Amino acid sequence: MVTKQVSSNIPAQAIQNKSVVSSGNANGVINITLELNFILIHSIQFSYSASPTGGRLAITDGTNTFDVDLATAGPAFLICPLIFTGNVTATIYAGGASIVGKLNIQYTHES
Fold it and tell me: Which of 17, 41, 43, 47 is the most exposed place for a label (fewest CB within 10 A)?
């Protein structure tokens, strides 16, 4: 009998999800408090209800920053490993007076 060790890409910690909506001229902000050694962001989904006038997504822990301009309406996503070593603040910036922005982040706390 041949045995084979199988490894998994499933994280040891349970994947958590946080969501926020920005509307009017108000930014939407998600705060994630560091519980272990680092926060691993697995995926990010975002959208605007119409083409934003100042669309932007910024994620930072005060030292490391992920920052992109968002120029179009509709849903988009990033599948990524982003690693942060401190408390995380994720902001989807207001897209305009009548534009709704949405942000969803899936993450785990890792040691």
Answer: 17
CATH of the domain at 20: 2.60.120.260
CA angle at residue 85 from 108 to 29, to 5 degrees? Answer: 70
Is 2 within the bounds of a domain? no
Whether residue 39 is contained in a domain is answered as yes
Whole-number Å distance between alpha carbons of 66 and 43: 13
